[in-house]
Specification:
The protein is mainly alpha-helical and 130 residues long. 51% of the residues lie in helices and 3% in strands. It has three helices and two strands. The protein has helices at 6-30, 45-52, 93-125, and strands at 40-41, 77-78. A two-stranded antiparallel ribbon has the order 1-2. α1 (6-30) runs antiparallel to α2. It starts with 5 loop residues before the first helix and ends in a 5-residue tail after the last helix. 14% of the residues are buried.
């Protein structure tokens, strides 16, 4: 049995994906002066779409009907568009900081949406009080 609806579950999965990207971007910034380090990123568009898609009520083969989806997992890939400096490092600090700020904004927005959903659930549990 799924405790929360598909929207809440999908938003939680999206938040997990953006948090994973945040970690990768922070690692890039931390290694901006490491010779030979290549900037990485997460491309999780397909996984994000799957996390936010309506669940199939029939389920998939081998999965219980209406089962909660598993947490999405994406491996970082080397940013092939990044320019490689003479020391072999491909981290452009201004680009990474901009991506980190944009990602942080998305995490904050998702957190606020989830908080609103949980507040609504709390009001229902409290019988409409508060």
């Amino acid at each position: 049995m799924q405790l929360f609806g598909n929207v809440t579950t999908g938003l939680g999965a999206a938040l997990d994906l953006y948090q994973a990207r945040h970690k990768v971007l922070a690692e890039n910034i931390a290694n901006s002066e490491t010779p030979g380090y290549r900037a990485r990123d997460l491309d999780f568009g397909d996984e994000l779409a799957a996390a936010l898609a309506p669940a199939d009520p029939a389920g998939t083969p081998g999965e219980a009907k209406g089962a909660a989806p598993t947490a999405p997992h994406v491996e970082p890939t080397i940013d092939r568009d990044a320019t490689i400096k003479p020391d072999g490092n491909s981290v452009a600090l201004d680009t990474q900081v901009g991506r980190l700020a944009e990602n942080a904004f998305k995490i904050q927005a998702l957190t606020q949406i989830l908080s609103s959903k949980y507040q609504g659930l709390k009001r229902v549990i409290d019988g409409g009080k508060g």
